[in-house]
Write a structure and sequence with these properties.
single chain, mainly alpha
């Protein structure tokens, strides 16, 4: 009986080793990945904070022409916006990009609540003509996935604005 118990316990210890080692490696890998992502996110956030701080300085001192867009550039002239307006919109867009990058990869509960709010906020701004003009002038500065998402949001907003204008034009005057 004691010998059988010893054999069972020995078999269980082998099973624990066979299962435990891969599980431990998996948990270790998962934790290291989380740490790496958290480190990358922290680096991005610090960098973004410094970028927005720099843009704020550019806005406070436009005579120094520190912003990477000049009033003489074709995109600026075409937009009809001042460099100061473009700087303000760049700060706003950078904040939107941060929200997009933070919330798009989160778990479903956070994504449901926070990302939806960011999406609605971006949609609101996308319906404004000055914002769309600024976006065309500065969009290439941003993350490619964010740029694609924002282009889609702007396209949807433009379609909605066109439908609204068509409906308003089709209604008879009273």
């Amino acid at each position: 009986m004691l010998s059988e118990m010893k054999d069972v316990l020995e078999a269980l210890s082998y099973l624990a080793t066979i299962i435990g080692i891969p599980v431990a490696i998996g948990v270790f890998w998962y934790e290291k990945r989380k740490e790496r992502i958290a480190g990358e996110l922290e680096t991005y956030m610090r960098s973004n904070d410094k970028y927005i701080g720099y843009l704020t300085l550019c806005l406070q001192h436009p005579q120094l022409m520190g912003f990477d867009i000049s009033p003489d550039e074709e995109d600026v002239k075409t937009s009809g916006l001042s460099v100061e307006q473009l700087t303000l919109f760049t700060i706003l867009i950078s904040t939107m990009e941060t929200g997009f990058l933070l919330y798009r990869t989160q778990g479903s509960a956070i994504k449901e609540s926070q990302y939806k709010g960011w999406h609605e906020y971006m949609s609101y701004w996308a319906s404004r003509d000055a914002f769309r003009k600024a976006w065309r002038a500065v969009s290439s500065q941003f993350d490619s996935e964010f740029e694609s998402a924002m282009n889609e949001i702007i396209g949807t907003a433009q379609q909605r604005l066109q439908r609204t204008a068509l409906h308003a034009a089709a209604e008879p005057e009273r």
